[in-house]
Amino acid sequence: MVLAFVESFKYVGHLWPLALFRIFIGYQYINVAIQRYKDGYFSNAYINESIRLGMPTSNSPDWYKSFLEGIVQENWQFFTYLLISSEFLIGVSFLLGYLVRPFSLFASFLAINLMWALGATATDYYFNLFIINLVLFAVGAGRCLGFDYYFYRSRRGIWW
């Protein structure tokens, strides 16, 4: 596997800028997760405040608004833990280039949820993040400078 990682440096030379971009996005995900942890998201209900402020300007469907108000706001500690751990796992996946396709789909789902939950104030940022994650999925950015190259070379599936 280590040999395949070294071979991935020369795989498809035109993908290296996208691989560097993937690594940068992974670093940003980890940075955001660590910053939220340091800001005390586990002890304070910041997620409730963000949802409350974003709800009037949100373009989300009514069923999603009721889900946010009824389930997410009541169980904010669980969803805060889920959000921070998801961002951290996505970042590690993007940094290592391992399972980039499944995690980029998961990150797209996370971006849509945050875009709907936070309303118009964060729509542009999370929409751009949604598009970036879809591009990383479509290209298979983990094959260059990543461990996905080993699985792509030996197994050739949609996830690699």
**Count of all domains:** 1
Number of helices: 8
SSE string, helix = H, strand = E? HHHHHHHH
SS-based structural class?
A: mainly alpha
Strand content: under 5%
Number of strands: 0
What's the shape?
Answer: elongated
Low-confidence stretches: none
Distance between the termini: 14 Å
Q: Main beta sheet, described?
A: none
| Mean of pLDDT | 83
Instruction: From the alpha carbons, calculate the radius of gyration and give it in angstroms.
Output: 17 Å
Helix content: over 70%
In words, what does this structure look like?
- The protein is mainly α and 160 residues long.
- It contains 8 helices and no strands.
- The two termini are 14 Å apart.
- The mean pLDDT is 83.
Task: Please summarize what this structure is.
By secondary structure, this protein is mostly helical. It contains eight helices and no strands.
Tag the structure with descriptive keywords.
160 residues; mainly alpha; 8 helices; 71% helix
Strand and helix map with partners:
Elements: H1 2-7, H2 16-38, H3 46-54, H4 62-72, H5 76-96, H6 100-118, H7 123-139, H8 148-155
